[in-house]
Hints:
The structure holds three protein chains of three kinds.
Chain A: H1 3-22, E1 47-52, H2 59-74, E2 79-84, H3 88-100, E3 107-110, H4 114-121, H5 128-135, H6 143-149, E4 158-159, E5 166-171, H7 172-178, H8 189-198, E6 202-205, H9 212-226, H10 229-234, H11 244-258, H12 271-279, E7 283-289, H13 293-296, H14 303-306, E8 309-312, E9 334-337, H15 344-363, H16 383-393, H17 409-424, H18 429-447
Helix pairs in contact in A: 2-15, 9-11, 9-17, 11-17, 17-18
Chain B: H1 2-35, H2 39-44, H3 57-65, H4 68-100, H5 105-117, H6 124-134, H7 140-163, H8 168-176, H9 181-192, H10 194-209, H11 213-218, H12 227-230, H13 243-278
Helix pairs in contact in B: 1-13, 3-13, 4-7, 4-10, 5-7, 7-10, 7-13, 10-13
Chain C: H1 7-35, E1 38-39, E2 47-48, H2 52-60, H3 62-95, H4 100-108, H5 115-126, H6 133-140, H7 157-168, H8 170-182, H9 186-194, H10 199-227, H11 231-236, H12 248-257, H13 262-292
Antiparallel strand pairs in C: 1-2
Helix pairs in contact in C: 1-13, 3-7, 3-8, 3-10, 8-10, 9-10, 10-13, 12-13
Amino acid sequence: MNPTRLTVAAGAAATALLLAGCSGGGLGGGGTDPADVAPAGEVEPREISWLLSRPADGGVITTMEQLADEYAAEHPGFELNLITTPDRPSYIQRLETLAAAKELPELFDIDATPFAQKLADQGRMMDAEALLTDIGVHDDYRPAALSYQRFDDGSLYMVPFEFQVELFWYNTALFEKAGVEVPATLDDFPAMCEDLRAAGTTPIALDGQDQWPLERYMAYQPFRASGNDFVRDLKRADASLADPVGRDAVAWIAALGEAGCFQEGFSSTGYADAQALFTSGKAAVYNIGTWELANLATDALDAGVRDDVDYFTLPVTDGAATAENEYVSPSGIGMAVNARTYDPLVRDFLEFALTRYPELYAKTGAISPTTTAETTIPDNATPLYERAVAEADAVGDVSAMPWDTQLDPTSNSRLQQELTLLVQGDITADEFVTTMDATIAEHGAAAFE
Amino acid sequence: MRRERLDVHRSLNGVFVGLIVVAQVYPLAWLFLTALRPEQDFASSNPFSLPGALTLDNFARAFETGNLGLNILNSLVVTFGANLLIVALGMMAAYALEVLGFRLRGFVRGLFLIGIIVPVQIALVPLFIDYAAVGLLDTYGSMIIPLAGFALPMSIYLFSSFYHYIPPETYEAASLDGAGPYRIFGQITLPLSLNTIVTIVLVNSIFIWNDFIFANTFVLSDGLKTIPLGLQNYIGAMGNVDWTATFAAVCVTITPLMLVFLVLNKAMIQGLESGAAKG
Amino acid sequence: MLPHRSRVAVLVFLLPPLLLYGVAVLLPILQSLGLSLFRWDGITPMEFVGLDNYVRMLGRDDVFWQAFANTLGYLAICLVLQLGGALVVASLLVALRRGRELIKTLYLLPAVISTVAIAFLFRQIYSLDPVGLLNQALDMVGLDGLQQAWLSNVSTVLVAVSVPEGWRFTGLYMLIIYAALMAVPAELEEAARLDGASRWQVFTKIRFPYIRPVWVTTAIMATTYALRGFDIPYLLTNGGPGQASELVTTYMYKSAFSHTDYGYASAISVFIVVECLVAVGLIIALLRRKENA
């Protein structure tokens, strides 16, 4: 074959493959109806896979491995293949390529993003509400844990495996030295930062590298002003950052930047470095969830600060629409069940695993997404551990939704970039509002048609 | 007088070279030192200061959480497989282009040039769909094929520029003896290419050993994970990386590469030099 | 060329490499070209949009243009470091009497270390809070006024992410240039020196013209690698702060895998291919002309 003809042939093959790739994109693709959670038939043991994004030696994986072993002992031939990619951006790349090639495994982790919503709309994920009800565990779950996984229309397609509350950890000694109090309202933050700065302390340790921690701050004011309504409208371009709620939020972020709240050069500080700033007593405040209890509330914590660490929850604002015990309480990335490969075996295994999971998981010292199991406090815990766990039991029903799972991805990455610039003072609040409103108008409106 | 100036020059040269060497070696030294540092010491004090104490804990953790042996084995398989293709096919193409010659060789050379130029990221989604269609996903092949494919053009280029300078008389003599193109390839071109082969293998091994993007896209099962994927085992909740364990693992995993590197170094440097001096 | 070549022999030698190359490289490129005419998120059916992705890229996307400008800056810095640095070090090495072999080996070491570790190291070096190595050094020589968070300042970040990439592979280019320099006939230089030429003149009049062909090769290699540069900027700053260190490649990767905008990402990759072709064309044209003059 001469090279020209080879090129032509390759081109034809390319087109054919692309067409093959996009055909069969209709409902279900020959799989189970998403609502048919109890299909008839025998349980035939085989290997199933779970594509997940969780720490390789974390509580979820060790617990599920143990349960899979127990199930396999009763059902020879069964195996649960856990494929984890803890680094979230790499995980998402992998998930998306698998979804594009229609090769998603039986179980896969996904947040309640617009991308997940599309998969659900195509009937590619099982209805988790029906599944959990059928298994008989639905009512065991904390309402906040389930609501974190729900789409805007209230439908549920992901099963939570953890429950966390995000707290503001602070160093009492540094607060005392600077003569500052725990902020009573969000609007006290800039003043708190200025006083801490004046005392020579870095006010807040922030992991700017991973972007989402700063984006949390963007969500706080609107959540206090209007619950999750504002972001739900904003992402569809039905609300604008120029609206009063948006303006206040943007002005607050700019004020945090002006007050020097975050360490210099936060945009390139990684997760571990930010935490080290706090645990080594250099920074006074650190906003992180209870997944870090093992590092912040046990004797793994540096002895130099161990007795000085305390926490407060997200402060309210004047006339706040949400209660003091309502703030960010995520239930982690959720697990979706692939409708195409769903069969009696998958259902049987999930029933086996989900009914036993909470108790085993709580024994690892973590907080179960259900109310049915009591967390085992580790032997080396500081008193803070137990208090934080109790805090999780006391949260209200409305959970503040992190914006990174709400906005369409293009607007989201733009928001993350512009937020850094706003805090650093590289752009003004007005420029921020103009850029973001334009971006959301182009991409958000289209993503949520 | 002149002698003295020359000496001053020489010692200045020496100092300058010394400084540069420090800049080149420091990162590696830092990496090994950090891997030997207690976790707490690393978190709480200046990362550039000398360690307060030395420990092997990080290595213990690295082996416990990860599956380093298997990762190294997989990386070896992939590196070996890809190099085999890169060298064999690169030599063949260069031989056809430079020694045999044919009418459309300008066109074919241009076609290969495109491969030197395009970024690998653009191939990910199409390749994934293609591999899924032919059942190649999650195999060694799914890593080896694109790695070899994208490295092939540079290999062809290096072999070509080397073959270009083998004097035609060498072939003519053999031809007169009645040797055909296959025998000439086996008896003349191949033995002469040894240095270039070593060079190409080493340069490519560096990239393949550290490849993350193809492995992360095409490999799913634990049994096939290469080293860069294995390093992910040290990432905790929400991206909290156990850096000291990661560095310990990095030290373990680059050691085989460095050993080969040091052993073959002389041959490789000769290869690069001879290829380049003539190219 | 061989007198006894045959059509069959050409095919035997050419087809296997062409096959691998076609399947692994050309096919996906063609598929990308096709994809760039569609809007596709990977899961819903593809929608044909004609040239709209290109119109958006060239006409409506301010991030793309900033990324392009950054890429040119990144390219310039990498070239200065890799070609300039390699030439300087290679010249120094040629003048050196002992230890050449050892130094050459050491010089290649940074290329071996995994990118993840390199990125982490440089993040610490550039850091200001806590004070990193670079800022400590500035303080020690009394330039503490220059101290800053190098990766967070929009005006320094591009240089800061380019340096590690440039530095890492300098050794490879140095080796190639060094070899070429070693091949410069000693008699030529000696004759020039006897004629009273200065070191600089020897370099510009004799050595450099002699190694020009090698110089073209290294220039092409360094340029195309830099235009494809990806992992260090991606790991160090992820393109930030804002878009200050976003490169066309990182932007393409994000468009594909964080925005699931495969059609648009394909349009960007087509742009990268064109950009590289133009760059290579320019290098060859420029250096050839000089050669002929």
